[in-house]
Amino acid sequence: MESRPQYLHASSTDDLARMVTGLTEELWVLRDRVMLLERAVVDAGVLAADTVDELVPDQELAELLATERLRLIRRVLGAPLADRV
Amino acid sequence: MATGLKQRGRADFNFLADLARWSGMSLQGAAEEDFDRLIDRDALPEGIQHQIRAVTKVMEAESKVYQWDRFFTRFCAEQQFRSALLAYEDGEQDILAEYEKYADQGGTVHLNPDVETPSYWSDTEFHLAPGGWEGHPRMGFMIHDYVYDLIFSTGGVGAVRAGEKFTDARVTTAQGGLKDHYDEILSLGVGTGRSAVSIQQVYPDARITGVELGRTELEHAKLVAARHGYSWELHQAAAENLPFEDDSFDLVTAFILFHEVPVPAAKQILAEAYRVCRPGGEVLIGDVAPYKDQASLFRCMVLDWETENREEPFWRGSLLADRPGLVRDAGFEQVVEFGASYPWVTRGVKPTR
Prior knowledge:
The complex is a heterodimer of chains A (85) and B (353). By secondary structure, chain A is an all-alpha fold. Chain A has helices spanning 13-43, 51-54, 59-77. Chain B has a domain at 107-349: 3-Layer(aba) Sandwich (Rossmann fold). The interface between A and B is medium-sized, with 19 and 17 residues.
């Protein structure tokens, strides 16, 4: 059933918590930058303040988003099961 | 886009819906392969309840893909209301504006501040909704427009298989009536009006009355009616104690109500359904099929998980009960049942005097 070799010894919950907290920290840094980028674009008069908030993806964009979203789910969340799904 | 929904909420719901669907399709598909390989059917105990318990134990211990499917399913079940609350906060102004816009439309909500709510209803946080069905002043909105429309509707949640259309089950149930037309239809546990929409679409000339314990659900049902140009009489009442005269309705319906109530309450509800049903009228129940009518033991196992893991405490009892027997015991005749895993339809006729 388990065909892939194992490299790591069982991690403590603290180790995993540190990784998740560090990941959240980096996620915030990225989100902060996106928010600043959006503000800069609005201030430059390129977009209205609520353009991104209110944007409803058309069919083409919706399909593109769906494809990338499913890729993300499969690659990240499916990583432990890569040989099965 | 749904009322009040912004980028954050849309992206969040898209993610949860796709995660639930991927888990329901890909992971459950692989889990069923494990099931066929791991389960020795000759060694199973007698009785479906014992069989479900036995196979669950094996799969939870030995099928990694089943473990992850259950983890992701639970994760989505927890997150959906948290995400709905955040999305509601972002869109509250637009949401309240829509209620205001339709204030004079959709029919009438008859609230009863003295309604006796059974403890099984008020003490249960159904579907893991924080605080239960009335855990937020606009819980009805969040359940209908966000959680159901944006996550459940894509399938892979509960009894709705991944890829199945969520609303089809309500139309299928409504079409299970014997007649092409009914004058007065009662919807027990009308909730936010989703099944009432299907009933009205199938019987466009019928007058629809709904009963529901939850105030926020009733208020949202009225908005849903208004959006469709319908008008319903919506009463805050327990289905066990209906505020109507005998022989008031020629069709009494209940969609996915019975798996949310304990069997003793189901008996009371059916007794009331019989009382308010006109002679020659019908009762029509749509719900998840009992275990005996499910296609496979694997499917029974997946469904049974809802009982302890998605705050569905009456699910197992309902799916083990003799549903047509309960309908007959209430006095209905010509009791038949038909359908699929979901919906499974049970119908009875009140004898003419």
